[in-house]
Structure formats: structure tokens, C-alpha cells
Request: fold
Amino acid sequence: MAQIAPNIQERQEFWKPVVSPRSETRPTNAGTEQTCPDCGTDFIIGSRFCHVCGADRQVNLSDTALTGLRSWLDYASLRDALGQSTASLVALLAGFVCIIAAVITGFLFTATTLLDWQAVQVWRIEWLMAGIAAFLAGLLLRKK
Reply:
């Protein structure tokens, strides 16, 4: 029986993954490692642990999402990302505020009579007209 499988200890067992250490280096995106530092296998997208050896990826995914949100809330980076001037971005943000106010006006004020309903509609029209004016100002003031 020993002659049938003479080198059984030298063979890779079927249930263990075959892992060869990688010597090449890959560029990383946004400071996150794309390969496991312990075994060299590629991480599955969105995983926190290596699927082969179980090593921690050592990147807190909530921190990277939070910094992305902070960069969009930063006024200067938002202005540069959209390619707008300061006046143009202020006008566009005012336009969004006016549109939101027009929508909220319909929910906050209840109309019991026809006269109340007409008043609410006039308010909504005024908010929408202010939003359109702000959007046009934003378009006219943008960078060339």
C-alpha cells in the first residue's frame, strides 16, 4: 500500500488553498490595499477580511465613506469638482433650497377652502419662480 502513494506528505491536500506568495507590486487605489499582506491573494471587493487566510484588511470602510462625504460637503472641493465659481455655486444652492421650500409648502399648509388652496398654490409658484431665477443666475455666473 505504501508503494501506491509514496509521497503523500509532500502533496498539497485538496481542502487547503494553493497560495503562492506574489512578488510583484500592484498600484493601490485611494490608500487601500488590493492584496492581502499575509498571503498575497486579491481581496474580494468590499470585504474586510481575506477569504483565504482570514487576515484583517486593516481599513475601516466606514472611515473611507465618511471622508468621501466630508469632501463633498467641503465648499471649496465641491466648487472645484463642479467647475463653478463661488457666485454660481451659491445661486445653484439657493435654487435647490427654493425648490425644496416649494415642495414643503404643499405639505405644511392645509387648505380647507378654495381661497386657502389658491393661496398655497401662489406660495408654491413664488418659490418655484425664485428657484428658476436662482438656477438661471447660477448658469449665467459659471466659469467659462
Remarks:
- The two ends are 84 Å apart (CA to CA).
